[in-house]
Amino acid sequence: MVTRRDARDASTDTAAEAPVTADAALTELYTAHYRKLVRIAAMLLDDTGLSEEVVQDAYVRMHAAWRRIREPAAAEAYLRTAVVNLARSRMRRRLVAQKHAPKPMPDAPSAEHGALESLERDRVIAALHSLPRRQRECLVLRYYADLSEAQIAETMGISAGAVKSHASRGMAAMRARLEEES
Amino acid sequence: MSKDDQDLEALLRQALRERADLVQPTGDGLAKIQERAARRHRRMAWLRPSIAAVAAALAVLAAVGIPALVNRSGPSGQDAASQGLGSHSAATPRAKATPRKTTPKTAAPSPGATPNRVQGVPAWPYRDSADAMASAGANSELTDPATLAVKFVKAFVSLDANITPEPAVDNGKIATVQIVRSDLSQRPVCTVQLQRISPNSRAYVVTAAETDKLTMKPVEPIEGSTSVRVAGTVQPTTATVNTVYSGLLLPNGSTNAKRVAAQPTDLNPQNRTWSITVNTQQQVTRPGIVAAWTVDLKGDVLDFAAQPAD
């Protein structure tokens, strides 16, 4: 006798076995992750337009590599890694052209906009942006993307121990900078 | 963890959330991605038959050439006699190298020969795929995707072009290299796509170059003709552009290429469509690569796109 639950499980299995086309996966993954990835990139680059370009580039690459990826979970990890790598590449280019200062995000609040709390958070973001690249990436992936140490390690292509070390040093440097300013 | 640490973590988490909430992606992201993915797919399609042909040629080489080479490098006297090959002493070296008596009748390529059946596809900077297989590694510059990508763009626009490559993103089969201007603007010029000619080869060939701001329609087959018509669109945001150049790169040997350029015969100011007829001065006998590019007032390249024309 096939229970309703069995039938549901069977239909789920069938759906899971059906090959997902690259186009369908693209739409699904766009809906699920695009906004979040743009925001992660924006936290790394401090430039919304550039962040969208980086994330779109990552999706195009994911689409091209879909035959290898196949799994939505793997695709999410692939996209995250691609976004971090592409953002890194953009950052490197920006550092080479030292005068090319990062454009502030167009919808960021002005300094006189807010209360003390808002100013304090602005100082925290400024301190974050002053950190070395790896420390900054670790902190954004940990405290904004809410990734585990293992996921951060996979995304950044480093060991879990290195993640711990970068995160700890990053927090210490941020604290030192905030104390110095106050 | 101290309370101070926890406070700072909470503050950082909150600051990041607040800041991220201000970032609102524009709504056309999916359409842009789909358009770029489709364009990339179309451009890669042309290389697939040639890769299959190269794979087939490699399979033949592996099946016939490698055993032949192994046998040739081994002791020839007693082993050959023990395998009954002594009676074929008057045969060709290929027959000697073949381990079985029945195989000399088959038309296997001689060991070490380049696969000559892979012809007729653009494989810049080589004459064709067979040439790429044979020449791979001969010039270390040509095994670096980033260097090759810049060389490719410069072959069209100018050897003095003020451009530089970003580090290549390479998955072992396909590499993409973003080319940017070397000036302070660091403006992206294009993304060059390259493909490794085979998994075991160090040779890359350029398959296409693209940018969102300058698009090209598929080019009609050009073999046998003396001119090629190229058309596309320029993004309206590129307001300063009033000229589009187009060039045709015709493989003419491993290192030399014939380059011809032309200005547009039509540039529609309303929808920024353009078309150019490139006169090749001679009948085209090989597949080539067609490119289009725009320049700023100083003559430096702004945007660049290229695709194969076979």
Commentary on this structure:
The complex is a heterodimer of chains A (182) and B (310). Chain A has 182 residues and is mainly α. Chain A is built from 9 helices and no strands. Chain A has helices at 4-17, 22-45, 48-64, 66-69, 72-96, 116-129, 133-143, 149-156, 160-181. Residues 1-16, 98-104 and 106-113 of chain A have low confidence and may be disordered. With 310 residues, chain B is of the alpha+beta class. Chain B has helices spanning 3-21, 29-45, 48-73, 77-82, 93-97, 129-135, 145-157; strands spanning 163-165, 169-170, 174-181, 188-196, 204-210, 214-216, 227-234, 244-251, 257-262, 266-267, 273-279, 288-295, 301-309. At the A-B interface, helix 2, helix 3, helix 5, helix 6 and helix 7 of A face helix 1, helix 2 and strand 3 of B.
What does the radius of gyration of chain B come to? Answer: 26 Å
Shape of chain A: elongated
Number of strands of chain B: 13
- Poorly predicted tracts of residues of chain A: 1-16, 98-104, 106-113
Oligomer category: heterodimer
Q: How many helices of chain B?
A: 7
- Regions with little confidence, pLDDT below 50 for 5+ residues of chain B: 69-120
Structural class label of chain B? alpha+beta
**Helix/strand order of chain B:** HHHHHHHEEEEEEEEEEEEE
Envelope shape of chain B: globular
Largest interface: A-B, 51 and 40 residues
Relative helix content of chain B:
25-40%
Largest sheet of chain B: 5 strands, antiparallel
Number of helices of chain A: 9
Broad structural category of chain A: mainly alpha
Give the ordered list of helices and strands of chain A.
Answer: HHHHHHHHH
Radius of gyration of chain A: 20 Å
**Biggest beta sheet summary of chain A:** none
Q: Please bin the fraction of helical residues of chain A.
A: over 70%
